[in-house]
Design goal:
Layout lengths: L1 H4 L7 H16 L3 H6 L5 E2 L4 E4 L8 E4 L2 H18 L19 H14 L8 H14 L4 H8 L4 H10 L1 H11 L19
Antiparallel strand pairs: 1-2, 2-3
Helix pairs in contact: 2-4, 2-6, 6-7, 6-8, 7-8
Length: 196
């Protein structure tokens, strides 16, 4: 993730915008359509949230956004975005250089380009970042209900598929924490007789 986030050239306006986009994806786990639909006023820098308007199932929700993502969004919003606003879509946060909201297919191609540049050899693009957010939160100890709320899942079963990915982490925690996990040398073997 560090290599991916560092892939855009932030010395250029489009690179700064793309870094902000990647940071929001990684911080919030938004769907592609949700990210494209975020308006500037939906970002609450003081509370550290983004308001997702009409997510999947036409449901609104607030999603926490990290300080680092907010830092990049603020830089983009103050330095780059004013040059992109043309008057047709002044409310959208992420704009193309022509002033229109980002196109979903273009966004996927752009994320795929940055994944390749970062040396990430996995299929997918925008949804891969969403998947990473869920997996890393679960591996970090987040309750599955909070992960489901962050991702905007209506049913907990939808989020449970991410728990399968983190089974290695779960096994490692089990091995380090459960007192009966390890078999000690010679444990109970004196009482066991081999069949003759």
């Amino acid at each position: 993730m560090a290599a991916l986030l560092a892939a855009p050239d932030v010395s250029k306006p489009l690179g700064l915008r793309d870094r902000a986009v990647l940071e929001v994806f990684y911080s919030c786990g938004l769907r592609r359509g949700e990210l494209i639909s975020v308006w500037l006023r939906d970002v609450d820098f003081d509370r550290g949230t983004i308001f997702v308007r009409l997510g999947k199932g036409a449901k609104d929700r607030y999603v926490p956004v990290g300080e680092r993502a907010l830092f990049w969004v603020r830089l983009y919003a103050e330095i780059v975005r004013p040059g992109f606003v043309t008057g047709r879509f002044p409310e959208h946060l992420f704009l193309s250089s022509a002033g229109s909201p980002l196109c979903p297919d273009w966004l996927c191609r752009q994320v795929r380009k940055y994944l390749a540049r970062a040396g990430v050899d996995k299929r997918g693009s925008c949804h891969l970042l969403r998947h990473s957010v869920a997996t890393l939160m679960l591996e970090g100890g987040a309750d599955i209900r909070y992960v489901a709320e962050t991702l905007g899942h209506a049913r907990l079963e939808t989020t449970q598929r991410y728990t399968r990915v983190s089974i290695d982490r779960l096994r490692a925690v089990h091995a380090s924490c459960h007192p009966g996990c390890r078999l000690e040398r010679g444990y109970g073997l004196g009482a066991v007789r081999r069949p003759s």
